[in-house]
Structures are given as C-alpha cells and as structure tokens.
Amino acid sequence: MSEENAIVLKNIGMKFNLSKEKVDSLKDYVIKSLRRQIEYNEFWALKDVSLTIKKGDRVGILGFNGAGKSTLLKVIAGVFKPTEGTVEKHGKIAPLLELGAGFEKQYTGKENIYLYGAMLGYSKQFIDEKYDEIVEFSELGEFIDVPVQNYSSGMKSRLGFSIATIVSPKILILDEVLSVGDAKFRKKSEKKVMSMFDSGVTVLFVSHSLEQVKRICDKAMILDHGKLVAFGGIDEIAPMYEKMIETYELENPRPKKKKKKVSKKAVEKKESEDAAEKVSEETKA
Amino acid sequence: MKKYIDSFLNYRFLLWELVKKGIKLKYRRSYLGIIWSLLEPLLTMIVLTIVFGTILGTRTKEFSVYILCGRLLYNFYSTSTKSALTSIRRNAAMIKKVYVPKYLYTLSSILFNYIIFLISLIVLVVVAAVLNVRPTIYLLQAPIALILVLMLSVGCSFILATLGVFFRDMEYLWGVALMLIMYMCAIFYQPEKILDSGFAWVLRFNPLYCIIDIFRASVFGRMMNVHYFLYALGFSVVTIVVGLFMFIKKQDEFILQI
What we know:
The complex is a heterodimer of chains A (about 280) and B (about 260). Chain A is built from nine helices and nine strands. Chain A has a domain at about 55-80 and about 170-280: Rossmann fold (3-Layer(aba) Sandwich). The relative contact order of chain A is 0.14. The N and C termini of chain A lie far apart (about 50 Å). Chain A has helices spanning about 25-35, 70-75, 110-120, 125-140, 155-165, 185-200, 210-215, 235-250, 255-285; strands spanning about 5-15, 40-55, 60, 85-90, 95, 170-175, 200-205, 220-225, 225-235. Chain B has about 260 residues and is mainly alpha-helical. Chain B has helices at about 1-10, 10-25, 35-55, 65-85, 85-90, 90-95, 105-130, 140-165, 170-185, 190-195, 200-205, 205-220, 225-250, 255. Chain B starts with a helix and ends with a helix. Chains A and B meet through helix 1 and helix 3 of A and helix 2, helix 6 and helix 14 of B.
C-alpha cells in the first residue's frame, strides 16, 4: 500500500517562539535571565495536521495569509523539522520556493548553476550534461558569465526555475512560482510544469488565486490558523473556500471589508490584464 | 552511523563546491588573487622579525622561520574558527530554502581555510631555504602537527558555530579570546622564560601552543615533546566530540534563529 503514497503526514505540529524582543546575544541573555525577563511567546503555526497524499495527486493548498501554508510546504520540503509528528516521503522532491533567493551574488550565473545544482543534490556529471539545456531555457544568453548581483529579479527567477526543473522529480512543490518573469517566460514555465504533470508527478501547489488552483489541481486542502479544516476533491473544497471568504467578509467590520474588496478588485484587474496579455501574445503568434 | 556516512558521500560534490566558493570569493576582487595567501604571511613575518628580532633583540638568524611556523598555524586556527562561527548565519538564505545537512556549511568553511593554509606553507619552505634551515629526518613529524591543528579547529568550530547561531555577540567575544590565545602561543617570543617561571601552565595547557611546538620541532630538527602530543590529541578529540554533540542536538533549531 505504502507504494502508492507519496507523502504521509502524521500529527504535524510546528511551534515558533515569538518573543517581543528577540534575545540573540549573550549579553541580553545573561541580563534578562538575571532579571527573569525572558519571555517565551509560543505560537503554533501548524497543529495536528495529518494527511496522506497519493502518488500523482495534484493538491492545492488554500488559506488566508498566516494560515500556515508556506510552513507546511517547508516542513514537507525538509527545511523545517516539525516540533511534533512525523513526515514520510517517497521519492525525490523538487522544491520551487522563492526562486533565486539562494544564489551567491558574487558568483556568475554559470558558477551558480553548479553551486545551486549541488545544493539540490545533482551530481557534477548531471549538471555538465544538462548545462546547455539550463542556459537555453533560462534565456540568459551571454549574461550567464556575469555576476548574479547584476541580474534583474526576473533574470534570477528564470535561472532559478530553469535549474530546479531540469530534473524530473517525483514530488513537485510550487509556492506561487507560476508568476515568474515576463508573460512570455510565464507561459513557457507553465508549459514546462504542465509537461511534468503528464509524467505523473505529485504536486503541492500554493496560490491565492482559486482559479489557478482549480485549473491545475484535482484535490485541495484548506488551512486555517494552522489547522487542517478540510481535505478532498477540488469540486468539493472550492465551494467551501468561497463560502469561507464570504463569511469572513460578513464577520469582519468595515475597514477590513473595504480592504478586502480592493484587493479582490486588484486581483480581478490583474486577471483581466493577464487575459489581455494572452490575447496580444496570440495575435502576435 | 552508516546513515551519516551515506549522506556524506552523497553530498561530497556539494562540499567541494562550497570549499571552492570560499576560496574563489576570498580573493575574487583583488588583483593578486591567491598570491595574497603567500604575500600576507611573508609581510607579517617581516614586520614581526623587525619588531621582535631587531628592535627587541632576539638575534638569531632562524628567528624569522621560528615566527613563521607559529604565525602560520595560529593564523589558520584563527581564520577558520572565525569563519566557522558565522557559517550558519552567512548561509541563512540557502538554509531557509533547501534542505542540506547543515554541518556542510561549517565544515566547508574550515576546509577552504585549510587549503589556503597548506598553500601558504610554500612561504615557509622558501624562507627556510633562504635562511639555510635544512630539513632533517624529524620533518616527518610535520604531518602530525598539520593533522592535529585541523582536528582542533574542527572541534572548536562546531562548538562556536552552534553558539554563534544563538548569540550574535559571540563573534566579538571570540575575537578577544583569539587575541588572548595568540599571546599564549609564543609566536614571536622564546617560550623558555615563561616555561621556567610559575606561569608555565599558560603555554602547557594551551593545545595550540603544543601543536606549534611539535611543528617547530619538526622544522628545526628535534624530537617532539610526547606529552604535548598526547595532550593536544586528547584535547582535540574531546572538542570534536563535544562540538558534534552540541551541533547535532541543536541543528534543528538553527532555522528558527536565523
């Protein structure tokens, strides 16, 4: 049976200390412990999350800001070790989190391909083989020999995306990365991710856009204040999430409601822009 | 244990990349590049010889070689522990993104300094040849000192790297401690005066001094002090055990602090 499971989470809990003042020097520590002033403000970003994701599932993770979505992804990626519970993973994970954030600024693009590739666990021969492909996909051309500190943020993300997706992983973690680069590259990256889907990869996807989740995922979960509220097929979860947003708007007093509306409008505007871009792309083609 | 060895073998390439990165970035922006690792100890040696040899009057012609031996070993210990102390914080961006065993960052910052140190030994060979200090059979003891100083540095580095994550001011405290250690190493003075006084323990209980003495014994052609060897070896092994224990116990909390 376990052959069919990609990820099994059992009673995951993740605790953070949110002290008002951070005690991070020996001086503060000594003074404050003498005065008995050390405060530990516990905060559970995740609590009692248990779920089983089967191979080939494409799971969308929904929830408001601060619900624990990114924390959950980082726990699965192995960056955070959970305070409680166990994580079981079957297969290689490609984490596409904050692309390009881990680059060495003084290194050139080429040197970063090797360094970052090594971080992701690739071997030297593998990178040697795939080097041209990575450069080609990133569309960096001769900029590949320029130090990364002179790159634009779009160029960095493109390079990060190209390195991270050169393998065919068993489990793919996407944290709003499908909005990388310009419209042209975004289309290309979406196509690349879609082609990975066809090879039966397991996907975990975080996005604030329900539309995008609906398009990509076949299952979804809702997180709220660190707890797993619901997990099931997308057709079942999407209406629940819409309802959650509605009740949130009803329950909250005016100023927040106003803010929410604005952001919703902004989202709609962005989507219409996207559509416009797509149309212009198509007409160009 | 087998699990650790397997994971180490898997990450060999990354370790090498990190070591390479350390060496490359250290000299990237300077015209002379890696030559600096030769020039810098040579220039310090000249300054120290002038100050302590000529002006304060220890006039033997091998005094420059004597200084260089102590200075090279101390300098490796100092730069490697300092860089290991901040190794976790410096790589925070990476650690927050991708899972990689964290000891690789600390280990790589020691190893890249070790490689630079080994290169800088060329200076010693040249200066010794110029000043007519001939190699003897006792030179075979030199690898013992070179391995001991690496072990000592690894042990101390893991302790410091762990503390450095939780206490930012460790960096300054360690800077002061290193200065104290430097004066306790008899780098630019002859140790006999202190060894004959009531303060002999200052040198005898300093493992770095013991290692420097073994190294000098091999360069100047005498048998090493076996007590020093056993003490330095014991001290290094204990720091490695303590350091690894601390590091492994606390490494999952690092990410919450950086």
